[in-house]
Amino acid sequence: MTLMSKLVKPPTFKPFKLALIQLGNISANKNDNLKHAREMILKAASGKPDLIVLPECFNSPYGHVHFPVYAEKIGFTPGEPYDIGRSESESVKMLSSAAKECSTWLIGGSIPERDADSDNVYNTCTVYNPQGELIAYHRKVHLFDIDIPGKIKFKESETLTGGTTTNFFDTTFARIGLGICYDIRFPELAMISARQGCQVLIYPGAFNMTTGPLHWELLQRGRAVDNQIFFSMCSPARDTTAGYHAWGHSMVVDPMGKVLCEAEAGEQIIYTDIDPNVFEEARAGIPVTKQRRFDVYADISVGL
């Protein structure tokens, strides 16, 4: 569910097991990428997680020149039933089938999406319930346009359009907020999700060898502590033969800023148990959620 659900009380936060797939072997062949991703989802499911996460751009090489070539039409409207059988997206069909086969919640990383009406291309995350139903999505809001002289220049806006909504979904164990990669640099998005009742935020992402060492962990710990929520980012594995070198180091951070688990650089599946007691203790001991001065500054979540 997206913003339409914001007035609904969040589900009771319960313990759950989270699996992050730091996917490797992402090639120019989409069919091979989908096959490998499915194999890794099934492998991750053997650890009995409640929620499995794939990385950003798992079905294609990462780069603005690739996005339009690999883009798929999804045609999802939040809040309306989605017919997987009639979907034009082969990636959506694979993810739905895998979630249903594993009987688990699945955040399908992100894929390039082409809007059927506008023809705009988005970087889009899709979410599936254990019955394989597509129930939520998030279009990357903030596009990765940076230029660090002598190190990296990248401009997603050359081919992508930014999304216009904040998004979350409810499970039987938590309300989970969504973002993608560069979205993490904009604290407003995480603040809004937390104030809408999200206990966990998950952002598929692909930081690089310049920004990764600098800010990957720092930003996740910062967002977790600021909002007293669990925060996680899932990266592709590092491939130095690819055009874009991902940092890797997929991780999960608790509301006190403690790194609960962290991958290395290569392909890897990591698991962590999410404990709601840490969430409750953080908010009880340092009660910033009850101490905000909206008489002094604005609540940016109001009116959305």
UniProtKB/TrEMBL annotation:
GO biological process terms, semicolon-separated: asparagine metabolic process; glutamine metabolic process; oxaloacetate metabolic process
Gene Ontology cellular-component annotations: mitochondrion
Pfam families found in the cross-reference section: CN_hydrolase
PROSITE patterns xrefs: CN_HYDROLASE, UPF0012
Gene Ontology molecular function, alphabetical: omega-amidase activity
Keyword Metal-binding: no
Annotated keywords: Hydrolase
Superkingdom: Eukaryota
Domain (CN hydrolase) ranges: 16-276
First and last residue of the signal peptide: none
Keyword Hydrolase carried by entry: yes
Family label: Belongs to the carbon-nitrogen hydrolase superfamily. NIT1/NIT2 family.
Protein name per its UniProtKB record: Carbon-nitrogen hydrolase
